[in-house]
Specification:
The protein is of the alpha+beta class and about 190 residues long. The chain has helices spanning about 10-15, 25-40, 130-145, 170-180; strands at about 50-55, 65, 70-80, 85, 95, 100-105, 115-120, 155-160, 160-165. The strands form three sheets. A four-stranded antiparallel beta sheet has the order 1-7-3-4, with no helix packed on it. The radius of gyration is 21 Å and the shape is elongated. About 20% of the residues are buried.
Length: about 190
């Protein structure tokens, strides 16, 4: 993962009501683990990143869906089986922030494996990270913080009875948010 900073240490400490610096080391690790867990669960990178010559198979249609979004800049669309590649004029395509490129004037993304190379910028700047995603990441950080002494334990048995049980998955309200931000894949 890219070590995204969806939520930082200060936000987690504020949420937990911690004002001292005694636990900053462990809290930093917990918050980074929460950030990484969100990216892994959503199968995408959230921090604004430039993707250079990302390779795509053709679709046989006029549309191609990029792996990362929101797309803020689409720099180059090119194609070919080997270098030098042919660059598509920017007037011949359009794109949406959701990462859909459309070839105009009847063009299609030829269905040839590893034929298309796209350079673009996608993701969120820190100031515009979605608030629900920040909240879900903070909730995961809090969950990790509360579970720090119980990592790896799913239950504890005494005299044949379960006396403690811990969540193995994210809480449902957090998972709902992650599902909304999950990378969309068309097969």
């Amino acid at each position: 993962m890219s070590h995204v900073q969806i939520v930082g240490l200060s936000e987690l400490k504020q949420y937990l009501g911690i004002t001292n610096e005694d636990e900053d080391g462990p809290l930093t690790a917990i918050m980074q683990a929460a950030n990484d867990a969100v990216e892994k669960a959503c199968d995408r990178t959230f921090k604004s990143t430039v993707y250079t010559d990302e390779v795509y198979d053709g679709t046989g249609t006029s549309e191609l869906i990029l792996k990362h979004y929101p797309v803020t800049v689409l720099s180059v669309v090119k194609y070919g089986e080997a270098s030098p590649f042919t660059t598509v004029a920017s007037a011949d395509y359009g794109f949406t922030s959701e990462g859909i490129i459309t070839l105009l004037y009847g063009g299609i993304f030829d269905k040839i494996a590893r034929y298309w190379r796209i350079t673009y910028t996608a993701g969120y700047a820190d100031a515009v990270m979605p608030s629900d995603l920040k909240w879900a990441t903070t909730e995961i950080g809090v969950f990790f913080y509360k579970m720090k002494s119980r990592l790896g334990i799913t239950s504890k048995t005494v005299a044949g009875q379960v006396v403690e049980s811990y969540l193995a998955n994210f809480p449902a309200h957090v998972q709902d948010i992650l599902d909304r931000h999950k990378r969309k894949v068309l097969y």
